[in-house]
Predict the structure.
Amino acid sequence: MRITEKMRKEIIVNRTFEETRVAVMENDRLSDIFIERRETEKILNNIYKGKVQNIVSGLSSAFVDIGFGKSAYLGIADVVASKNEKNIENMLKVGQDIMVQIYKEPISTKGPKVTMDISLPGRLLVYMPFSKRVGVSKQIESKEEYNRLKNIVKNLKKNLAGGIIVRTEAEDATEEEIEREMQYLSRLWASIINRFNNSKCGTCVHKDLGVVFQTVRDHFTEDVKMMQIDNQKELNDVVDFVRTVSPELEDRIVLYEGKQPIFKAYGIEEEIKRLRSNKARLKSGGYLIIQEAESLCAIDVNSGKFVGNNNTQEEVGTITNIEAAQEVARQLRLRNIGGIIVIDFIDMKKEKNRKKVLEALKEATKHDKAKIKIWPITHLGLIEMTRERKRESLFSLLGDTCPTCHGLGLILSKESVFISVCQEIEQMKIEKFFGKIKIKLHPDVAQYFVERKRRLQELFKKDIDIIPTDAVTREDYNIILEQ
């Protein structure tokens, strides 16, 4: 889906004591969701004073103490050294104090990943103190504008050490605006160095913007029609921030005063509930099945009820696949799915149709701020792609691993529990036992046993009681021999 000037964008902010949620809407449809919770503080892009704890030469990496329970991982490619060294032991020493920035939050059992190559993002520019590079976003398509911005930055940074990347938001920005932001980022870097020099190991010397300000910085542009906030204090803070970075957009920030909660009024609450499901429906009647693992996600495309109007099977498959490609891009953003992604599209025999689907996916992911790489579609109809993952997925944020199935998604059937009970009673060798057998089961399973109680009594020649109880889990049971 190509984003044009006609696309209507809105930003919706819901602020409560326990969490802050920000939704980006495109043509009344949710395109991005960001959630920050009080007890799970965001640490991505924060900068810390760390101490080298251990160097593993075999992995060309080091582990750094930044004051967390888990050590941070620092790869050799992320070490800033004064000379072009290939041996990490010549670049770092155990016990050395270093400045590091988190570029990947802890996920599952893994600690955070850090880099010494610091980057400070502003609204228009990204300042990299240890780099010499001057670059311009590839999403600025006008060659004339691309060269104008590059020349402005080259001229302005003559007295500034480090590198600069010009962001897409800088398109049509004036030289004065760019210079003002460059000076701000330079002052920010000086203050970070000062805090680093006067802090102890494990101190956070720079904290990145919160979720609302970050959304303002990265998403609140000219094409946003309105930003609605349901909290007066948050609105006041955002207005103050916008007056500094984009004063021309201040009048687009409004207080939401509707009777319904803001996320419910916009249908966002229901959308978030749907994101908890592994099924995403397509308007045509087809659907996606999304299966997430720790570092791999498999997506299966199904045509469902869609049969087309006098369309051939090839045409139905192609139409569904193109719609699915657009929805896959949206779901990856909403669910914040990263790592390796494999999409199983409906089979298409014609090469031109395969190319259409591939191009549709590339176009749909074009404006995703995460780094994405897509490989050509295979003969089996699979597309392999990777998406940068900097923090845990939305599913991981909203939920915990099921204590019954432990994340498998399946539990033992009632029949399987029944067979297990029979096998265990048989192993007890109860031929010489003349009492009663009591079997305690979860209520959901107990009825299955009640219906087969006669079979159990005939099998073991004993009097058997079935006792439903919530004290037993769905897969478990207790067998009691009572005299």
